[in-house]
Amino acid sequence: MSEAVVDLNADLGEGYGPYTLGADADMMPIVSSASIACGLHAGDPVIMRRTVREALQHDTAVGAHVGYPDLWGFGRRPVQLSKDELHCFLLYQLGSLEGFLRAEGASMQHVKPHGILYNEAARDESLSTLICDVIHSFDAELILFAPAGSITADVARQKGLRVAEEGFADRGYTPQGTLVPRGQMGAVIEDVRQVSERAAELARGQVLSSDGSLLELKIDTICLHGDTPNAAGFARAIRAELDAAEIEVRPVSTFLKESSSGRRHS
Amino acid sequence: MSEAVVDLNADLGEGYGPYTLGADADMMPIVSSASIACGLHAGDPVIMRRTVREALQHDTAVGAHVGYPDLWGFGRRPVQLSKDELHCFLLYQLGSLEGFLRAEGASMQHVKPHGILYNEAARDESLSTLICDVIHSFDAELILFAPAGSITADVARQKGLRVAEEGFADRGYTPQGTLVPRGQMGAVIEDVRQVSERAAELARGQVLSSDGSLLELKIDTICLHGDTPNAAGFARAIRAELDAAEIEVRPVSTFLKESSSGRRHS
Amino acid sequence: MSEAVVDLNADLGEGYGPYTLGADADMMPIVSSASIACGLHAGDPVIMRRTVREALQHDTAVGAHVGYPDLWGFGRRPVQLSKDELHCFLLYQLGSLEGFLRAEGASMQHVKPHGILYNEAARDESLSTLICDVIHSFDAELILFAPAGSITADVARQKGLRVAEEGFADRGYTPQGTLVPRGQMGAVIEDVRQVSERAAELARGQVLSSDGSLLELKIDTICLHGDTPNAAGFARAIRAELDAAEIEVRPVSTFLKESSSGRRHS
Amino acid sequence: MSEAVVDLNADLGEGYGPYTLGADADMMPIVSSASIACGLHAGDPVIMRRTVREALQHDTAVGAHVGYPDLWGFGRRPVQLSKDELHCFLLYQLGSLEGFLRAEGASMQHVKPHGILYNEAARDESLSTLICDVIHSFDAELILFAPAGSITADVARQKGLRVAEEGFADRGYTPQGTLVPRGQMGAVIEDVRQVSERAAELARGQVLSSDGSLLELKIDTICLHGDTPNAAGFARAIRAELDAAEIEVRPVSTFLKESSSGRRHS
Fold first, then answer.
1. What are the chain A neighbours of B44 within 8 Å (beta carbons)?
2. Mind listing the pLDDT tens digit for each residue in D5-32?
3. Comparing C-alpha atoms, which of C44, C55, C75 is closest to residue C9?
4. What does the domain layout of chain A look like in residue ranges?
5. Nearest by CB to A78, which of C69, C72, C80?
6. Rounded CA Rg of chain C
7. How far apart are CA B71 and CA B50, in angstroms?
8. Considering the entire predicted model, what is its pTM?
9. In chain A, at which end, N or C, are there fewer CB atoms within 10 A of the end residue's CB?
10. What CATH code is assigned to A4-254?
11. Mutate to test the interface with D, among A11, A14, A19 (most CBs of D within 10 A)
């Protein structure tokens, strides 16, 4: 009997014009949610429509991967914008993806901040508030993807937004549930077998932390990287492990409960 | 008793970052419809939100001014795109503006192709069809702005879209109802008094053509230029003339009949 | 007998495509040095060539106005680049302007960092060093424009570069020779007569500081703003005052002594 | 004894920010000339400097790969520019690359128009003239890369520029010495052995044409593609074949005679 369920997500549609980035074709059949770049840090209208259509063909739920307006820097560095300006740039991106979804008779599932915006917001209440306000003003039913246990997740729930708490199967966790910072021992796990097993553990809500203790961590969605070497290999291994463990992989919107409920799937 | 009614429209929000273009602040209180650039040939998210808000403050209806993706060329030259690619770029623009409107609790009235796209489509059935298909896929209730009597207007009606037929008070018309080509005698009318009077004539459906004959021309909306020297002066004079002539100036959505009805206001 | 000599400079060629910024046509006959934007924070190849040609017609010396790669932000905000990346972006700009000068049989006089880069460097030795290294690698004969008394000026001289120390006639100076920070009393001087007189004082090397004491400040070039309201009016008034005071206005390369000499014109 | 000599060239540095395109690292040791994108259709300042440095490390000669300003379209489609505007955009690119070469104490060998510009010019005298005029105004010693027997090559010689006539080992030639148009039988040769042999034939000045006759065709430089699947494999095979045939591979500047001499190496 399948008791556990989890969403698998990847960042897709990150090319631009002649340029490709990431193994979109390989990833799409594996994931249940796709976060699609909206043309400012990556992506363009042609790639957006194609990626939306591919997602719908695979019953993959679609979200807006919103980032700083910085194609050259790929949204990996902050762009100095006033709160008000950033608000406008994020709203622009939500709308632009909505156009493609509406034209296909589909709707948006979620919003995931990209790159440095995701990381900054995770520890910055005011930035998290801004992101939530943008989403609220556009569509209060959207689900926000945020690091499990982050400030972003807390702020979103306070604002009445649904949150998908996100975990990383290839990253180590401290006993407190935060990611082991890159550069430290155990920050990144490179063994594909170990990563797959951790994915299953994350889906079940318990994972071994960096000091060997068992960490309880409710995870709604696991992030699969699409732009690392052998990204597709890792993704397939993770999916196979989840299937073998009879953990169902479904878009987070199909199982996420109300935002007010504190914990959403149990 | 006021019998005649007409819409006055202008292209607004055409700046970019530090750059301004056009007399937006002067034009907004005069026009009843604003076509707002969507960030690809001009405009940016910050300018878009500001322009949307200013429009709503003045009860000015808002439309998407969609163009070729070409900031440097300002959408005044064609960009070589496949039909499919152009479709994506136009849809992207509709969505991006929709985001700002939705966040303000407002909705989009119309779509106006910009620059060379407007001119090309006016005489190209296949391009007009593409534009109509994009609009249909996004929101079939949107009104398309097209030159009065153009191929674009015909195609749109066949497609079941509502069309606002657009007239130009500062341009000469041939007896056949087409614009006297630029460069020919009588192409552009520069006298502000004459332009104002022609605006009133256009609103009433009859205007003197280039050979002196009276041309019947049903016009729903008159285009006011915002980026010419003394644009605001012309706009004020036209508005004053219409007011004096008791011609009501209202957003075209408030008086445009069904697309199928052939003629819409009478 | 004319004893004093000074350079007048302005930032020109700051438009982009359809957009204009600043009163270039008015400023060019007034200034003796033009700093031309190189296409990354402003400017484009067409504007660059036109501005270079106009400068040469007026015997105005030409410099590269180099900035952060950020058209939307106009180089007014820092872009997060590694030192090595910034080096590349600056070198790119020097080369691009050089092409237009070489094609006209002319040569570059100076380099002026733009906007936030100029301000950051003025108090940052490592950034000043980077800028000097770029210039050195490109052409060690170029003159660097830097705030009078700034770290940039010191670093440049240590590196063996010639420096034009720049003054601002419309800004107040502290008794220590630094600018009164914007926002404080006396930071900006708005009276055109007073600004003109201060320009003459700066050219002669003595100006009244914010506490009323006389400040000795050797200035090689005075910056005229081209993008403020009535920029041309201020520029003409300053030029007229200098002419009346028999202070010669010439490109800084015609009177600047060796970099090693500490003080350059006396 | 080695009698024959030929240049091998490839288009390198075609990435942008996070995006890569082509197998630069594999190609650089194989080719004798590198055409480097200058930031308008591809490339950026960081990639330009890196590619210049790698070229110099391998004693590979460097040229400017100049194209239409169109990152999204990658210079594969024409951009509608006036002759004068295109002149400015090309000159800008020459200068920008020159900066990086000068900083390394190196100099530019050649100019190669990119993509559609190369193809358009090959059959358009006026466009070829424009390109030659740009080069002349910048540095009359530069070598222009042009299709063997093209209008571009003729115009360049008339203008007194040196030309490297370029051949394609993977393309079929008509008995008249033009390329068999893509889409026709024999347009593209896919067998690596055959391509290698044709490279050697081209270097020796005789190649089998599409009707089986022997075509005399003086080729100075052979273009190796860097962005096709197995590009590096083809390049290595061609280089090995030339080495085995004792055909020397050297930068074209080391053996190209005067432009006026009609034929340059014999």
1. 88
2. 999 999 999 999 999 999 999 999 999 9
3. C55
4. 4-254
5. C80
6. 17
7. 19
8. 0.95
9. N
10. 3.20.20.370
11. A19
